[in-house]
Structure formats: C-alpha cells, structure tokens
C-alpha cells in the first residue's frame, strides 16, 4: 500500500508500508520521467521524494500521467504500480495578443447610434476557464475628437465596436483612429496583463450633399450652322466623394430648347457640364436662346436631404450671324418652251436669294 504526501508544489513524498519489513527502491515511469519530455520529474529511489527538476509551462503541457513503482533490493515488485496524475496549475504569465496590430473597418456617415463598425479579437494563452485567460476590451483613445471624443464604444466581452453617438460626417472627418486595449483577469487593470491594437475606421460616403451650380446664370455664343461646338461650360460644386455616383453630375435641359438643338455632356474629370450644339441653329430664324438647366447626381440623394435651390440655372445663348452663300429657290429648275422660239427670247430668270436678311449684300 502506497502513501503519497504533498510536501510542497515542487515535491511529492511516496512511501510504501512494506518498507518496514524490506528495503524498498522507488522509481517512476511515463512522459516527463523516462519518456519525452524526459527528466522533468525525478524521484529519490530510497526516500521516495519526487521532485520537479525544471519550471513547468502549462501552455506547453497542462498535465502528466506517471506511474510509481516499488521493488525490493532484488528487483522484485512489492507493490502494484500506482497512477500519478499531475495537473499544472495555471498562472497569469501570458498577455492577451491581438490577431492584428491594425484593424480596418468602416461605417457610413450619418449612421445611427448602435450601428456596427467592426470587431477586434485578442486571445490569451492562459487557461480560458480562469480569470487568467478571460479577456476584456476597452477603448483608450479616439482621434480626432470631432464632433465628440466618444463617438464609438466597444463590447467588453466580444470586441464589437459600434457607434454610440450621431454626427458622423465624412466631409468633416473621413477617418478615425481608435486605440483598443485588451486586458486579462476579466479586465482588472490592477492585476491583469494588457496589450493594445489600432482600429482605423473609415467613414464611407452617402449622397448627403446635392450638387450646386456656381452661378444662377450662364451665357455663351455659337455660330449658326455649326454642330459639336461647346457653347459654354457649366460649373458645379459637390462635397461628396469625388468620382463616385454621389459626386458625378447629370445635367438636363428642362426648357427653352423644344427643337433639340443642344445637349449637355458631363466632363468626367472636372464634373463640368459641356453645353454643346447637336443640331444647327439659324440666326435668321432664332438669334438667341434662353435655356433652363438642372443638375443632379447619378445616385439619389440620401433620405431626408432636400435638393438645393442652386441646382437650377438659366443659360443665355447668342447665335452669331455668318455670311452664308446665296441660294437658288429652285435647283434644279425645269424650263419648257416651244420649238422655233426666236433668238433673244427670255426663257426664265435665275434669281438667287441671300439668306442673310440682316446684311445688305449685292448678289
């Protein structure tokens, strides 16, 4: 029969009650003794004192299963081997480690409080069933502080970051830098070990800024009978994300061009509206046009955002008179006359007409 005494955390005392009658020799076998990792445990063959020979690391091996043997001086077994189960008690010797040092997340501007942004995750190699491995999160700082220093909050247990206040505006702040801390011991700052990571939160654009024409009236001029000529450029400002559907301008002529002489094409680089002649204009028929144009975006405005009064403008177009060649009213002209007409008889008159009514010229 064995008796096992725990002398201290590094020592066991194994004793057989047979040692009163015969000399006993003790030994141990198993992983950690005579099997890899060998030499961690040792036993005094005479006294039965069992020792730990080196520091143990629970994160490398959390338990050991050994067998203790007792034999007489001739090597005969005097006791049945007994099982020794040794469990390494965890100590808080590992800091939480974030999976990344920099996390990237995003949230739309104008998002309501409670909107999900991103999640950060830290793991602790210590025993997760004890406080040593229980990680809690908190936000240390936010940059910039606009509009308030605490625009975000973090779930202390899951690491989920959400908005806590309204007022996100990409046109004012396009990115926030958040420093997040993970602490074990259930977040106890006095006893727990900590680590930090950075969360970069990009504020994504919504169409909350309608395009605004830079003037209420524009003007230009075009020669008559010309096509594919840019009459004037309409300029616009839009504070949304450049070269996105929220920024790209779409121009329309809503009045003043019933015959379809003009169109407006958008310059993809500058966002200007290029008012262009696509059907020839006639100075003698109409020497001026007064157009009304409106501008909007490719994307619809966000809910609750009213259209700007500056999205409408008037465009005055003057038509330039040019010297046009005379024209014959009928060309070709059919002439009929009877045979035998005397020489010198007038058959018809070719009278050309000058289309330039406002320029007196001799044909």
TrEMBL record:
One of its GO terms (biological process) is calcium-dependent cell-cell adhesion via plasma membrane cell adhesion molecules. It is a single-pass type I membrane protein. The keyword Cell membrane applies. Gene3D superfamilies: Cadherins. It is found in: Cell membrane. InterPro entries: Cadherin (IPR039808), Cadherin-like_dom (IPR002126), Cadherin-like_sf (IPR015919), Cadherin_CS (IPR020894). It comes from the Eukaryota. One of its GO terms (molecular function) is beta-catenin binding. Residues 16-98, 99-213, 214-328 form the Cadherin domain. It holds the Pfam family Cadherin. Residues 109-128 are annotated as: Disordered. GO terms for cellular component: adherens junction; catenin complex. Keywords: Calcium, Cell adhesion, Cell membrane, Glycoprotein, Membrane, Metal-binding, Repeat, Transmembrane. This is Cadherin-4. The lineage of its organism: Eukaryota, Metazoa, Chordata, Craniata, Vertebrata.
């Amino acid at each position: 029969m064995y008796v096992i005494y725990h002398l201290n955390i590094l020592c066991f005392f194994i004793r057989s009650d047979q040692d009163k009658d015969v000399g006993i020799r003790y030994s141990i076998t198993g992983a950690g003794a005579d099997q890899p990792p060998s030499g961690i445990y040792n036993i005094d063959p005479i006294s039965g004192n069992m020792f730990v020979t080196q520091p143990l690391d629970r994160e490398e091996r959390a338990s050991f299963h050994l067998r203790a043997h007792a034999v007489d001086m001739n090597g005969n077994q005097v006791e049945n081997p007994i099982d020794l189960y040794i469990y390494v008690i965890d100590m808080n010797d590992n800091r939480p480690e974030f999976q990344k040092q920099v996390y990237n997340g995003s949230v739309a501007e104008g998002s309501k409080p409670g909107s999900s942004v991103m999640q950060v995750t830290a793991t602790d190699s210590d025993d997760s069933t004890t406080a040593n491995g229980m990680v809690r999160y908190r936000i240390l700082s936010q940059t910039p502080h606009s509009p308030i220093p605490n625009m975000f909050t973090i779930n202390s247990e899951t690491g989920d970051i959400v908005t806590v206040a309204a007022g996100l505006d990409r046109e004012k702040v396009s990115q926030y830098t958040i420093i997040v801390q993970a602490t074990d011991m259930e977040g106890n700052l006095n006893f727990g070990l900590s680590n930090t990571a950075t969360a970069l939160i990009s504020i994504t654009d919504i169409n909350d800024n309608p395009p605004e024409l830079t003037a209420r009236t524009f003007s230009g001029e075009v020669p008559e009978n010309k096509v594919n000529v840019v009459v004037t450029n309409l300029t616009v400002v839009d504070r949304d994300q450049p070269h996105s559907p929220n920024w790209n301008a779409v121009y329309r002529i809503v009045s003043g061009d019933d015959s379809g002489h003009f169109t407006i094409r958008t310059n993809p680089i500058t966002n200007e509206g290029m008012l262009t002649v696509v059907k020839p204009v006639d100075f003698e028929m109409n020497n001026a046009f007064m157009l009304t144009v409106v501008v909007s975006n490719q994307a619809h405005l966000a809910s609750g955002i009213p259209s700007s009064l500056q999205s409408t403008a008037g465009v005055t177009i003057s038509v330039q008179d040019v010297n046009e060649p005379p024209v014959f009213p009928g060309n070709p002209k059919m002439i009929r006359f009877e045979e035998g007409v005397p020489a010198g008889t007038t058959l018809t008159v070719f009278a050309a007409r000058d289309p330039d009514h406002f320029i007196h010229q001799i044909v």
